[in-house]
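cache lookup: miss for this entity combination. No prior model stored, computing from scratch. Input as submitted by user K.M.:
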Amino acid sequence: MATLAEIRNAVDAQLAVIWTKVQTWEANYLAVHGGYWQGIINPSVIPADNNEVALNLARRPTDQIEDWAAANLTLPATLPMAFQIDVHNGPSGRGYTGTVYVKVLGNTYMRKQGVGAHSTTAAWLLVRPA
Amino acid sequence: MSTLSNKFTSFWELGEASGTRVDAVVASANDLTDNNTVTQATGKVGNAAQFTLANSEYLSRASNSSLQTGDIDQTFCAWVYMDSTAAGMNMIILAKNDNAVFVDYSWFWRQSTNRFQFNIYGTGIALAASASADTFGAPSTATWYFVVAGFDSVNNQAFISVNNGAENTGAQAVAPITTSAAFTIGANAEPSAFWDGRIDQVGLAKALLTADEKTFLYNGGAGRSWAEIVTGPGGSSILRGPTKSGLIEGRLIG
């Protein structure tokens, strides 16, 4: 089985590709809608131990029309991580934060990358021990 | 200003339709960021913040000294209304808790016991004290509850009560601390443990409230606006801070 470091490195590499597309999509979405696009966690169950899990591109919040398919991020059919984008609207303006989750040996780790006001960027962190 | 309103470090009426939620206590100005579009629904007093669990909605503010409590007297109050009781997970009313490294306090509906509960933490996320609303018992969905919780630093115990009823307490095990975790309403700061339903009239006081003050806030089940809290009990007619009814001293909320 892949080590924690190997899994994180693989996810980091995959995220780097996706993140560029996310930033383009979010900039365009903001220009049209006046706010950023929210991506509900996908897949809904965090993949464990580097196993690939199928994405559901129809997932979306109840108050937003555009789902993952509409974002057209050319995501692979499966991912070894769960990915979500939270959107922020506060006193300093708007922003968004992408978060990836992986589960390794029962431990859940997350990493965050943010853009704009009230967003968060954080290195890998253990958030739910086994 | 009343004796009661002076006790509040921050008070959020949560009547806005979306976006920033204004802190009625101008000196603190702990205005909250809307994450994932918290909406609006009929509240206990005017409108309330409506949190939809499926959308991961919550409100937040970066940590600062006015939101940190630690080993001091502190009281939190809020009106809460659950649309559902989420299967397999707790639902946070408010917290300073990143679910990983930094945890000050966490106030939530606990799934495993079906009770409202308040926890305050010490070094290394050790539980400093905890109080569960066992006397009140199991809350129902689609019902408003006035919940008051906090920590008494003289008697060294956490406390919680529902609808101005009898308190449950829990003794301190270790000293509470302060951390850099973000302050949140409707989830913890990870974020996870999302609330499903409405939250209204949230107050944070770095003091204990008297029995008369809690009775005033409960108001026989009708709640109180910030304007009413400012003017009584024992208050003057000079209002400060925003109210749900309009502009007071220059701050306007929707």
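stored under new cache key. Chain A touches chain B at residues 35, 38, 40-41, 61-64, 84, 86-92, 110, 118, 125-128 (CB under 8 Å).
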